[in-house]
Amino acid sequence: MMEIYVPISRNLITVLALLKYARLRRHATTAFVISLSCSDLIFSAVNLPLTASRYINEAWILGDTMCMIFPLFFYGNVAVSLLSMVAITINRYVLISRPDIYAQVYTIRRIILMLVGIWVLSFSLLVPPLLGIWGTLGFDEASFSCTILSKNGRSPKKVLFAVGFAIPCLVIIVSYLCIYWRVRRSLKKLQAHSGGKCGGFQRKEDSRVTRLMLTIFLCFLVCFMPLMIANVIDDEMRLPYLHIVASILSWASSVINPFIYAGTNRLYREAYRQLFCPSITPVANFNPPKPMHSHSSKVSAPNVT
């Protein structure tokens, strides 16, 4: 059972580190990253132990109620993760394309409303099958899992896939393409005015954070795309082993994000270091001067701290 506690502890550490580290706490992006980490934490604390019980006992022994809770949290957390990534990419796009209105858009009140909207919408999508209005939640013997089942020949899987997975993925991809286009155009203008030289501490920090979030999204796709596709193209469970392999792959999503944070971004490494070694002051812990180009990812102090 130690393998279950590892992803729980890693995601909990990530949440605590981001909340504690002041330089990241001032960034609006961090609020959505914490939402993503909380989703992984709930997945690790609820779904992984239930999955372990299912495989250890080679049967579902926890009753019908828990069998409904399992897919509720599983698919609900998938939606929360994706919508949090949508919020992150839109945040990065507004930061780069409209820095003049960024601080007005991302105030504490509006960020809280965005977070509440993400969580409420994600789990409300599963209310119809939970209540048995459209499909149902229960145990499927063919795939050996608790999942969304058809009821009276009707299943919401395809609609949920479109609304909760395909559309958010499309928004994220389009947003990153727009970010890439705007950054490239901005760099060309900057190079033209500076004789081919470009710099700026904050610009580099923003680019690193954007690359970090893109990496998280691509890893999320690798983990969850097979399961979502399997649920849509094989709704009748004709290939149960396909669903089992896809489910196992999806479990990795709750483990990899902390490694990505620590491995690809210096500020996140500093956040982890400050959590475990608060007495050690990093050399790079200083406030850089504001760049001439207003691509700062920090929300103004009166709004977000």
Question: Can you tell me about this structure?
Answer:
- With 305 residues, this protein is mainly alpha-helical.
- The protein has twelve helices and two strands.
- The protein has helices at residues 2-20, 22-25, 28-57, 63-97, 99-105, 108-124, 127-131, 157-194, 201-233, 240-251, 253-264, 266-276, and strands spanning 136-140, 145-149.
- The protein has a two-stranded antiparallel ribbon with strand order 1-2.
- The chain is globular.
Which labels suit this protein?
305 residues, mainly alpha, disordered C terminus, single chain, 12 helices, 2 strands
- What strand order characterises the main sheet? 1-2
Give the class from helix and strand content and strand pairing.
mainly alpha
Low-confidence stretches: 283-305
- Principal-axis shape equals globular
Terminal CA distance = 39 Å
- Averaged pLDDT, please? 78
What share of the residues lie within helices?
over 70%
**Sheet of most strands:** 2 strands, antiparallel
* Series of H and E elements: HHHHHHHEEHHHHH
- Content of β-strand: under 5%
> What is Rg?
21 Å
What is the strand tally?
2
User: How many alpha or pi helices?
Assistant: 12
